[in-house]
Design a protein that fits this description.
Blueprint: H1 2-10, E1 27-31, E2 34-37, E3 42-45, H2 48-51, H3 60-71, H4 84-97, E4 102-107, H5 110-125, E5 129-133, H6 142-146, H7 151-158, E6 165-168, H8 177-193, E7 198-203, H9 217-229, E8 233-237, E9 261-264, E10 275-280, H10 300-315, H11 318-337, E11 345-349, E12 352-356, H12 360-372, E13 376-377, E14 379-381, E15 387-390, H13 398-417
Parallel strand pairs: 3-13, 5-6, 5-7, 7-8, 8-9
Antiparallel strand pairs: 1-2, 2-3, 4-10, 9-10, 11-12, 12-15, 14-15
Helix pairs in contact: 3-10, 4-10, 8-9, 11-13
Bound molecules: pyridoxal-5'-phosphate (PLP).
Length: 419
């Protein structure tokens, strides 16, 4: 197979293509939640390009917007020139958030948007330190990687360079919230003692890749107070859980706070590379022109896809769909899974569900079997890679999702009996 040969020969090994299989399926088409191989084999995509293709594949309104943008003939302008597609997205984001009192910086990937948020927070107060959280994932470029907790991912590249970030404890249950807030305040005090000022607290209101932890509304509210007390920014990383995936427009909306910076990516365009930082008020207008640019930011075609996505989420009432259709499916699924020996815990919020097993070996085996036997694609996550995660498009039908969950339940149960 030519594709397999070429990918194996040339692709960087840092990419995860062959994690589950030496001969993974090669997809040539997509429609809704389905992906198709050349041989017309059909797979159910419960990965969504790592929580990105929230409208599924080949969505008509997204396709129409992309085609329209391409038809304009302008595939790239760069930010030194104005573009109607960018302007329209600014308006779309403001409507989606329900606030005009914001400023916006577009970028290309989640990591790049995190870099933007970190740089802005350090620039504004002339401060340096960032407080991030155990289990948090913020990306792989050096700044974002510094705030990504996993030592396996971070240490080979960052080493001592990463010491502008310290990691505070993230609650794993409600009863840990007070202790976690105390620990966080301790970190502020430690930095102050060293005469180092804290620029920002950076947090995922729901930890996604770590296996769906949260939301913990009072924790976020406590962090908001600490940010006020120590005069730093509160940055919420909504790259994974934002734009409807959590069952709210943004996962911080489970609590009663206003963040200083909201970082989004993935589901924003739900297709083409695009991310953004949305700041409260004029925060993003306080740095100097040219302080942070990149060539492709605000690409017109990606902006058109994002505007169409935001519109579709509102018009098709997809947040309601998540809460009324997807969540009940996960409720049923999780109560059935709890009787299975191998399953340690099931956590879900909105359109994301993590099934925790003893170790990553078991989780990988289940993912592999689901792909090979049931033609269902799932995501691997968890603090130690011990979770099989189900990340459906947020518009998936009840019938398709519940049939797939029944198949997964049977598979997990069967594999548990053979252990
Ligand atoms: C919460 C969170 N932040 C940041 C990132 C990094 O985004 P990207 O992979 O687009 O750079 C991810 C990616 O999974 C994420 O889940």
């Amino acid at each position: 197979m030519k594709e397999l040969f070429l990918t194996q020969k040339f692709e960087s090994t840092a990419v995860n293509t062959f994690k589950l299989s030496d001969r993974p399926p090669i997809f040539v088409a997509g429609e809704g939640p389905w992906l198709f191989t050349e041989k017309k084999e059909r797979y159910l995509d419960l990965v969504c390009g790592s929580a990105t293709t929230n409208l599924g594949h080949n969505h008509p309104s997204q396709q129409a917007a992309i085609k329209e943008a391409i038809k304009s003939g302008i595939l790239h302008t760069g930010t030194r020139l104005m573009s109607s597609f960018r302007a329209e997205l600014y308006s779309g984001l403001s409507n989606f958030l329900g606030s005009e009192d914001i400023s916006i910086h577009l970028a290309n990937s989640g990591s790049e948007a995190i870099e933007t948020a970190i740089k802005l927070s350090r620039f504004l107060g002339n401060k340096e330190h960032i407080i991030a959280f155990e289990g948090g994932y913020h990306g792989r470029t050096l700044g974002a990687l510094s705030a990504t907790h996993s030592e396996k991912i971070r240490l080979p590249f960052i080493g001592k360079m990463g010491d502008f970030v310290s990691f505070s404890k993230y609650p794993r249950k409600e009863t840990e919230i007070d202790t976690c807030l105390e620990r966080c305040e301790e970190l502020f005090k430690q930095q102050l003692k060293k005469k180092i000022s804290v620029a920002a607290i950076l947090i995922e209101p729901i930890q996604g890749v770590a296996g769906v932890w949260g939301p913990f509304p009072t924790f976020l509210e406590g962090l908001r107070k600490l940010a006020e007390k120590y005069d730093c920014l509160l940055i919420v990383d909504e790259i994974w859980s934002g734009i409807g995936r959590s069952g709210k427009k943004f996962s911080f909306q489970y609590s009663n706070i206003t963040p200083d910076l909201i970082v989004i990516g993935k589901g924003l365009s739900a297709s083409l590379p695009l991310s953004a930082v949305i700041a409260k008020g004029d925060l993003l207008k306080r740095w100097t022109a040219g302080a942070h640019t990149s060539t492709f930011q605000g690409n017109p075609v990606a902006c058109a896809a994002a505007s169409a996505t935001l519109k579709e989420i509102e018009e098709a009432k997809l947040i309601e769909h998540v809460n009324e259709i997807i969540v009940p499916c996960f409720e049923k699924f999780s109560s059935e899974l709890r009787n299975i020996k191998n399953v340690l815990e099931v956590r879900f919020v909105g359109a994301q569900c993590a099934i925790a097993f003893e170790n990553s070996y078991t989780a990988n085996r289940i993912q592999h079997e689901a792909m090979e036997k049931s033609k269902i694609l799932t995501y691997g996550g968890g603090l130690r890679g011990e979770c099989v995660m189900i990340i459906p498009p947020i518009n998936i039908s009840k019938k398709i999702l519940s049939t797939a969950l029944t198949q997964l339940l049977e598979l997990i149960s069967e594999m548990s009996n053979h252990n």
